[in-house]
Amino acid sequence: MAKPKPIVALVGRPNVGKSTLFNRLAGARLAVVDERPGTTRDRLHADTDWAGVSFTVVDTGGIEVLPERRLEAVEQRLRGRRVHAPVEPLAENSALFVREIREQAEIAIAEADVIVMLTDAQTGLTAADEEVAAILRRTHKPVIVAVNKADNAALREAATEFYALGLGEVYPISALHGTGTGDLLDAVVTALPPAPPEEEDEESVKIAIVGRPNVGKSSLLNRLLGEERAIVSPIPGTTRDAIDTRLEWEGIPITLIDTAGIRRRGRIGRGVEKYSVLRALRAIRRADVALLLVDATEGVTAQDTHIAGMILDEAVSVVVLVNKWDAIEKDTYTMVEYGKEVRAALHFMDYVPVLFISALTGQRVNQVIPTALQVQEQRLVRIPTAELNRIVRAAVEAHRPPSKAGKRLKIYYAVQPAVDPPTFIFYVNDPDLVHFSYERYLENRIRDHYEFLGTPLRLVFRGKKRGR
After folding, report:
1. From CA 269, how far away is CA 10, in angstroms rounded?
2. What is the per-residue pLDDT for 186?
3. How far apart are CA 455 and CA 380, in angstroms?
4. What's the rounded Cα separation, in Å, for the pair 411 and 442?
5. Which helix (H) or strand (E) holds 11?
6. Which string of DSSP letters, residue by residue, matches 314-341?
7. What pLDDT, in 10s, does the model give residues 9-34?
8. Mean of the pLDDT values across residues 50-72?
9. Helix/strand/coil percent split, the chain, to 5
10. Cα pseudo-dihedral 11, 13, 15, 20, rounded to 10
11. Can you tell me the distance from the alpha carbon of 191 to that of 51, in angstroms, rounded to the nearest whole number?
């Protein structure tokens, strides 16, 4: 189970360069960069490190300002301080997303350990910056002001006007060129809280309930507990915080983690990706097993597959729960056919168990925890080295490894050095010769002998000369 990392949220009004800074800190172009305000509609996250300290950096959609009459009042205050800045109207191409963007940023602020407020040196201090600062003043989290686009000495000097926000030290930077980002990161790392102590309940099996909004996560939690421990509502996003609930199941200690819904993909511009809610990511990282809820009345959606991919990225085991099964008209073959559709949509997770349940009526809910515990047991299975190598040799004999430029892959031997999740190291002549399809073939041959139900396998290929 991955240890939670501190979170640094990048916030600010639209089009100040949050996505550009995110890409620089993450070391890759993970965020869509567009001159149009409001391009980033949802949070993006990536793990990074600085000075030996690891953390998760989060890009947020711009916090849009309030209606123009409020802006005028703020502008009056600014002019009273002799700060003459233009009033920015609501961005025309992002007006439809104002509420969602603001909510996403505020959730990120609530979840963050350190907040970096980005502003624009070229535009100068604006009423919109004042509005963003007003939101940030409501938090007790450390806030660092980064004045972006300070691409020359004059702009860096002008950045001092942002001290008027009253949020503390100001760091002029250029996210595009990297200027000043080192000083900014030094400040971020200094402001991060000390690492939390290890949890005392590491013996409990941690099961996260995840899924899109309104698929029945809180209803399932209540049904599992047999009591109204969480508020149940048909309004998407009702559950705002991850809720940990302890229970015992036939003597086994369990921690159930209920999470806020992961939002649907919006009808947004080309190339813009919708990412998950942060607290769901944190819950998945803490979990041994994730219960991925799918709405039977809607089928597996693109956002469902995105959540499944996030679970896979974290190497967490999973049980797929097709909820609201009571609302489906059925015949003898409905469950079989629906199961095929689910597995086709989640083809990269063909090892997962699928249960058809109704949190409303309780149908098959009694199978959820036993199945999750069975999956957790599979995370801890270790194959003896001799048995593993017999499986690998038989696989190689049945299907010769691929070759490239006349050079064929040779597998000398394999070991399983770790469980939770099961990890296998293959010593080969050249790791570059391993094609994805052959890696998948080897995984399937291992699963032919050891099911590893609901559990991802990690296959690592290392170069090794024979006889060494």
Report:
1. 22
2. 95
3. 10
4. 11
5. strand 7-11
6. TT-EEEEEEE-GGGS---TTHHHHHHHH
7. 888 888 898 888 988 888 754 444 54
8. 67
9. 35, 20, 45
10. -10
11. 13
Q: What is the DSSP string of 209-227?
A: EEESTTSSHHHHHHHHHTS
27 CB-side CA count, 13 A: 6
What does 375-441 look like in DSSP terms, one character per residue? HHHHHT----HHHHHHHHHHHHHHSPPPEETTEE--EEEEEEEETTTTEEEEEES-GGG--HHHHHH
Strands 7-11 and 53-59 turn out to be parallel
Q: How far apart are CA 234 and CA 297, in angstroms?
A: 14
Q: Which amino acid is at 128?
A: A
The tens digit of pLDDT for each residue in 286-315 reads 899 999 999 999 999 888 887 888 888 889
CA distances from 413 to 78, 386, 448, 461, 468 (A): 70, 10, 19, 10, 12
pLDDT, one tens digit per residue, over 326-359 is 999 888 889 999 999 999 999 989 899 999 999 9
Is 162 within 8 Å of 119 (Cβ atoms)?
A: yes
Query: CB under 8 Å to 268, separation ≥6 — which residues?
Result: 41, 97, 274
3-state SS assignment for residue 108: helix
* C-alpha span between 199 and 96 (Å, rounded): 42
Q: Which residue has the tokens 């700060």?
A: 83
> In a 10 Å sphere around its CB, with 0-12 CB exposed, 13-18 middle and 19+ buried, how is residue 439 labelled?
middle
Omega of the bond prior to 402 within 30 degrees of 0, cis? Answer: no
Q: How many of the other CB atoms lie within 10 Å of CB of 28?
A: 11
Q: Number of helices (H) and strands (E), helices first, in the chain?
A: 13, 17
